[in-house]
Write a structure and sequence with these properties.
By secondary structure, this protein is an alpha/beta fold. The chain has two domains: 268 residues, Crotonobetainyl-coa:carnitine coa-transferase, domain 1 (Rossmann fold, 3-Layer(aba) Sandwich), CATH 3.40.50.10540; 77 residues, formyl-coa transferase, domain 3 (2-Layer Sandwich), CATH 3.30.1540. It has 16 helices and 15 strands. The strands form five sheets. It has a six-stranded parallel β-sheet, with helices on both faces. The chain has a three-stranded antiparallel β-sheet with strand order 11-12-13, covered by helices on one side. A two-stranded antiparallel sheet has the order 3-4. Helix 1 packs across helix 6 and helix 6 crosses helix 7. The radius of gyration is 25 Å and the shape is elongated. One of its GO terms (molecular function) is CoA-transferase activity. Keywords: Transferase. InterPro entries: CoA-transferase_III_domain, CoA-Trfase_fam_III, CoA-Trfase_III_dom3_sf, CoA-Trfase_III_dom_1_sf.
Length: 403
C-alpha cells in the first residue's frame, strides 16, 4: 500500500503530461486517493509519448508509453468528456466530494465549462484548487502555450547550463519536475490552512516562475553582484575543486567544498605543497584564482585511473563519484540497498519496473505501489461510488460519448 500519511484526502486530477501529474503522483504515494480524469478514447496525451512503450506479458508491444508510466502510479483512471454538459455535471459531483482539484489547462479554459475555481467553490468551499500553467493566470504571456524546454530557456536555466560557448538544456524535463515538487508542497500547505480555517483556496503555479525560482544561488549571486553567471560546463560555483575531471582512463566528479576537504584531497594526491601557496590556501583564494589552480588539478587527476582515485579519495573522506550510465546506476549497491527500483504487478505488461518514491517515513512508510491505471479502468467504480451513477446510466453515458 502507499503511505497512510494522506489517508482520507481525495484528489481530483484533471491534469496531463508531466508537471501536474508528478504532483498528484506524489500525493498518491503519500496516501491520497487520486482520481485521474481522462478523455474518453485517448486519455492523457502522454500515453502516446513513445517509443518506448511497455511490453506485454509475451513481449508484445502495448500502447502505453513509458512516459505515462513515470508519473501516474497509485491513481484511478476515470474517463469523462468535460466538453459535454453531462460530463461537467459528473466532474462537479466529484469535486463536491474531493479535497483537492489539480488541473493544467491554459488559463481561463475551464471557466468555459463551469469547472474553474470560482464555480466549483460554490459546490465545495473547502476545495483546494491548484492550477498549473506555463506563465500563470495573469500577465502578458498568460495565454501562451509552453513546454519544459521553453521554460528552461526563458527562466535563465539554460543560460547557466552548458559550456562557455553553448547554452544547454538540462537533459531531463527539469522545470516540469521542479514544478511538480512545488505543486505538491503548495497543496499540502493549502490543506493545512483549510483544516485550520475551513476554507479552501486557489493556487496559481507557473512553470516559468518555478524555473526562475530554481536558479537559487545563481540568481542571488547575480542580484548581489550584478555579474552575469558564466557557464562552466561540468564545473560548479562552490568551492574549488567542484567539477568533473578526466582521470587516466575515465572521468569522475570531485568536490572539495571547504578547506578541510581540500587539505584531505592534497593529502590523497601527495600534494600538500599546494596548501603552502597563498593563492590556494583558502576557499576564497581558490575561487579567486580558479583559472590558475584548475590546470594544476587537471594534471594531478590524470596521474591515476578513475577507480584508483575513487578508492584513495574515499579513504581520505573526500567527496567524489563516478559518471554512471543507466545500467551502472541501477547496478550500484547503494541504489539497490535503498530500494529505489521496485516492481509491481501490471495487468497490461505483467511485471512493471518503477522508480520508488525517495521519501523514507518511520511512521507512515510508502510500502507498495499500484501500477499506473489503464484508460478508464475505474470509471464504473468511481462514478457509482461518488456520483451515484447506476449501471443503466453508465451505459447511456458511454453511448453518448460522455465517459
Amino acid at each position: 500500500m502507499p503511505s497512510t500519511a494522506l489517508a482520507g484526502i481525495r484528489v481530483l486530477d484533471l491534469s496531463r503530461i508531466l508537471a501536474a501529474p508528478l504532483a498528484t503522483q506524489m500525493l498518491a504515494d503519500l496516501g491520497a486517493e487520486v482520481i485521474k480524469i481522462e478523455r474518453p478514447g485517448t486519455g492523457d496525451d502522454s500515453r502516446a509519448y513513445g517509443p518506448p512503450f511497455a511490453d506485454g506479458p509475451e513481449g508484445e508491444r502495448t500502447d502505453t508509453a513509458a512516459f505515462y508510466l513515470s508519473c501516474n502510479r497509485n491513481k484511478q483512471s476515470v474517463t469523462v468528456n468535460h466538453a459535454t454538459a453531462e460530463g461537467q455535471a459528473l466532474i462537479r459531483a466529484l469535486a463536491a466530494r474531493s479535497d483537492v482539484l489539480v488541473e493544467n489547462f491554459r488559463a481561463g479554459t475551464l471557466a468555459k465549462y463551469g469547472l474553474d475555481h470560482e464555480s466549483l467553490r460554490e459546490v465545495n468551499p473547502r476545495l483546494v484548487y491548484l492550477s498549473v500553467t506555463g506563465f500563470g493566470q495573469s500577465g502578458p504571456y498568460a495565454q501562451r502555450p509552453g513546454y519544459d524546454g521553453i521554460f528552461q530557456a526563458m527562466s535563465g536555466m539554460m543560460s547557466v547550463s552548458g559550456h562557455p560557448d553553448e547554452p544547454m538544456k538540462v537533459g531531463v524535463s527539469m522545470v516540469d519536475i521542479l514544478t511538480g515538487l512545488y505543486a505538491a508542497t503548495a497543496v499540502l500547505a493549502a490543506l493545512r490552512h483549510r483544516d485550520a480555517t475551513g476554507q479552501g483556496q486557489f493556487i496559481d503555479l507557473s512553470l516559468l516562475d518555478c524555473g526562475l525560482a530554481s536558479l537559487s544561488h545563481f540568481a542571488m549571486n547575480y542580484l548581489v553582484s550584478g555579474e552575469v553567471p558564466r557557464r562552466r560546463g561540468n564545473g560548479g560555483y562552490g568551492g574549488i575543486p567542484s567539477q568533473a575531471f578526466m582521470c587516466k582512463d575515465r572521468p569522475l566528479f570531485l568536490v572539495a567544498g571547504n578547506d578541510k576537504q581540500f587539505a584531505a584531497f592534497c593529502a590523497a594526491a601527495d600534494r600538500t605543497d599546494l596548501l603552502q601557496d597563498p593563492r590556494f590556501a583558502t576557499t576564497s583564494a581558490r575561487i579567486t584564482h580558479r583559472e590558475e589552480i584548475l590546470p594544476v588539478l587537471e594534471d594531478i587527476m590524470r596521474t591515476r585511473t578513475r577507480d584508483e582515485w575513487l578508492a584513495v579519495l574515499d579513504e581520505h573522506d573526500v567527496p567524489a563519484g563516478p559518471f554512471n550510465e543507466m545500467p551502472e546506476v541501477f547496478a550500484d549497491p547503494q541504489i539497490q540497498h535503498r530500494g529505489m527500483l521496485v516492481e509491481v504487478e501490471d495487468p497490461v505488461s505483467g511485471r512493471l519496473p518503477l522508480l520508488a518514491n525517495p521519501i523514507r517515513f518511520t511512521a507512515t512508510p510508502v510500502e507498495g505501489y499500484a501500477a499506473p491505471p489503464a484508460l478508464g479502468e475505474h470509471t464504473a467504480d468511481v462514478l457509482g461510488r461518488l456520483a451515484g451513477v447506476t449501471e443503466h446510466q453508465l451505459a447511456e453515458l458511454r453511448a453518448w460519448g460522455v465517459v
